[in-house]
Amino acid sequence: MRGGLASTDFGCRALLMGERMSGIRRRGLVGFAVGGALSGLTAAVLGASGSRSFANAVSRTHFRALVIGSGFGGSVAALRLGQAGVDTLVLERGREWPTSPTRPVFGSVTRITNDMFWFRRTTHWPGMVTVPVTPSPGVIEISEERNLDIACGAAVGGGSVVYTGVTVAPRRKYFEALYPSGLSYREFSQVWYPKVRRMLAPSPMPQDVYRSVPFTHSRIWDRQMSNARMRTYPIDSMFDWGVIRQELSRKVQLSSTIGDSDFGCSNGAKTDLTRTYLRAALATGPVQLRPLHEVRSISRRADGRYSVVVRRLGVDGTVLGTDEYSCEMLFLAAGTLNTNRLLVAARERGELPDLPADIGTGFGDNGDQINVRSEPLTPIGPAQGAPSASAAFFPDEFGLPLLVENWCVPEYASLPVTGTLAMTVDTDHRGTFRYDRGSRRVVLSDWTREKSAAAAEATSGYAHRVLAANPGCLPVSPNYPRTFTAHPVGGCVIGRSTDLEGRVRGNKGLYVMDGSLLPGNVGGANPSLTIAALAERAMAGIIAAGG
Length: 547
Known about the structure:
This protein has helices at 10-29, 38-46, 52-59, 72-83, 172-178, 185-200, 207-210, 216-227, 241-248, 277-283, 336-348, 450-469, 528-545; strands spanning 62-68, 88-91, 140-145, 148-153, 233-234, 287-290, 293-300, 306-313, 319-332, 361-364, 369-374, 390-394, 402-407, 417-424, 433-436, 441-444, 474-476, 484-485, 489-491, 510-512. The chain is an alpha/beta fold. The protein has 2 domains: 10-98 and 272-363 and 490-545, FAD/NAD(P)-binding domain (3-Layer(bba) Sandwich), CATH 3.50.50.60; 140-169 and 200-267 and 364-488, Cholesterol Oxidase, domain 2 (2-Layer Sandwich), CATH 3.30.410. The strands form 5 sheets. Strands 1, 2, 6, 7, 8, 9 and 20 form a 7-stranded mixed sheet that branches. Strands 5-12-13-14-11-17 form a 6-stranded antiparallel sheet. Residues 1-38 have low confidence and may be disordered.
């Protein structure tokens, strides 16, 4: 038996428990409004604040399973553990962010607040003016690594709170070139991708939304592409089109239709994980969630259990205390950056000395590039809507296979510009996380500008073709000189640092369940769908095998 769950018949019990918990989950969801605060659901699981059951629940420090992080991998792991009846705690460093139809909750590029960035003293974002802010547990962390800025979510729901919602799978050719042969693309396309899609329910932008004024930039982008004889197609998104229609009719606070999305949609226009996987996980019963609990280190105790040291934070960033948790099963889903930080530090400090030597290797930026162009004589309207309507894929025209998606450029407000996010299939350029003993920090040690050059050249080739086919269209240089990625992946590569179900080699009961598993590149796609699908497949195997 791998992983050591309760007994060798766990697989059979898990299936039966999963069916029983499914009914509990459905009943538990009744009465919770779609846009409601997650804290209401948490209270339903733990009991009312101040009650004995609540006090007993929140004082516990040992759980059968600990999940670090509540993004795509962590939420999948929490749900499947809960359905199997496994006593589980999800630790999330970020805050819960209940949305509101009437007031702004999150800051934005055009409305800067102190709680946008994770413990920064100045703003740092493409197109955003640099101004002082008060350090706090904000919704996005920007890590200024050598020659690369890495953005990652820091909230209950992880990156799903701040991403653009695009939900797409890589093409078979590139999946098979990047991922281990034991992962069948046919299996993913027939089982795991559909399983995630059923849970998330992504959909393309409806025509009435596409034809509305805030998406003039999307229609201009499609026309520019058509003029260049480039075929675009609609892409699936995790936006709530009903809320967006309410924005269009001015019935709710404006958010997505004015591009206020990068730091979260205040009115709930984005269907993040707090409304899908994470909500269902908490409703199973055995799963708890503790926000503002930042994991500082992991190790193994003499009795074989894992020890997790956690710093408790106040909403303003005040350190309220430090606790030690323990568990038999530890699921790392802190996001690529922070999972690598925790594991590499644990290995190098001797806290988990048996971790594989290749933990921390195989990192990639998914070939991310940003491209902006202007058509000065074309009116674009007062603002740009955030959801991405269209994409195009070029397998061999620009050196590297290239996916381009229409993005909004909120910092340019009503100026006639269109934005593009480009992602390349890059199988070669990788980086390494290493522990710096002087600073006692894990850093991306060997990323060079040359490792981003091939992606930049492919994106430049694409841009030149579009400009040539659209007279009067001009290139725009974003006010952000550094290479930037919102899609960090790799470092704990599946099939190398772990087995094909995320078990870390040589460390019983230790699992990786996030973007760290991806081999430095998604394969010409945004990562969220593939991260969740890998986690679904992994959890099915872990539960069936009893660990």
